[in-house]
Write a structure and sequence with these properties.
Elements lengths: L20 H9 L2 H8 L8 H20 L5 H22 L1 H4 L11 H38 L1
Length: about 150
């Protein structure tokens, strides 16, 4: 039996995560400039630029999630954070020698240090995503309450 093309839903289906994965990956990429600039020692630890580049992307993740009315705001931002965590790990691994240039510690230059950095980066992404997801969930709930009044 053939499906009637006039009754078929041609709009892209929302994915389980509440928004398209390509959008989520693009949002996660917003966090990479701080990672790259930090690993290349072009951005100071406590400079205002560091704070802007660290917090700004998460605020954008939350805003896009809330404004797009994601049906799963917590999960959406959590997954963005997890994608960011993977990108964070990859970037740190690629820039490892630059990040630790001049450091002669055998511990930092060992494969064990590189391997140990992997769960740390993934947990960082997950934590940022979870905190941002809670904020998105709260803002979405507040927006839904306001729209029903």
């Amino acid at each position: 039996m053939r499906e009637n093309p006039t009754t078929r839903n041609t709009a892209p289906a929302r994915l389980y995560f509440g928004m398209p994965l390509t959008l989520m990956a693009g949002l996660a990429l917003l966090g990479l400039p701080r990672v790259i600039l930090h690993d290349l020692h072009l951005l100071g630890e406590r400079s205002p630029g560091t704070w802007i580049l660290a917090i700004g992307p998460v605020l954008v993740w939350i805003a896009v999630t809330v404004l797009s009315r994601s049906p799963r705001p917590f999960l959406s931002v959590l997954v963005i954070g997890l994608i960011f965590g993977v990108l964070l790990v990859l970037t740190h691994q690629l820039l490892w020698t630059s990040a630790f240039a001049g450091n002669t510690s055998p511990v930092l230059n060992s494969p064990a240090a590189r391997i140990a950095a992997i769960p740390s980066g993934l947990m960082t992404g997950a934590a940022i995503g979870a905190i941002g997801g809670l904020a998105a969930l709260g803002l979405s709930a507040a927006a839904n309450r306001r729209s029903r009044v």
